[in-house]
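Notebook entry, structure prediction.
Reason for the run: the old model in the group folder had no record of what sequence produced it. Starting over properly, with the input documented here first.
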Amino acid sequence: MSYTANDYSNLLGMQGFSETILKNHFTLYQGYVNNTNKLMQLLDKMLKEDKAGTPEYAELKRRMGFEFNGMRLHEFYFNNLGGKDSPDDYQKLIKEIEQYFGSFSQWEKDFKATGMMRGIGWVILYRDNTNGRLFNQWINEHETGHFAGCAPLLVMDVFEHAFITDYGLKRADYIGAFFSNILWDEVGKRIK
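New structure, fully documented this time:
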């Protein structure tokens, strides 16, 4: 079974995100989908040819996490964008955030501060599936730093490709644009 890239053209025209940056980002995402499919085919072929014990097979297996997570994290990211709603409409979400961060504003402050950390990666609001605890977590690359057993609720891309064309080095301005476009309805569905 192959993966197919989702169509996110509905995000074109979103305030704070130029058409250029979105189309470039969609193309990058398509590359992760394509590479995930290629790696699955190569790994399957190598397994059938009894090459599973080779260094080449091992390196492709390692690369699979990068490509697959690059695909999936972009899907979470694009799916939680395009909103005009308010987090106030999602009292269950706000109550959970307040339980673990003290207040919604403290959570937002922590999420934004995490996004301002030097480096490339992702910021993810996670829920621990074991006890419901919420965490804001920095993810390096795509496959490094994920909390095992936790579900992503809100995903923000902080690789330069997500903002540098529109904002240069003003990452805080990009984060502000991201927050003004969060589709809280999608985050609310993920928390159920």
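Summary: The CA atoms of residues 42 and 48 lie 10 Å apart.
The old model has been moved to the deprecated folder.
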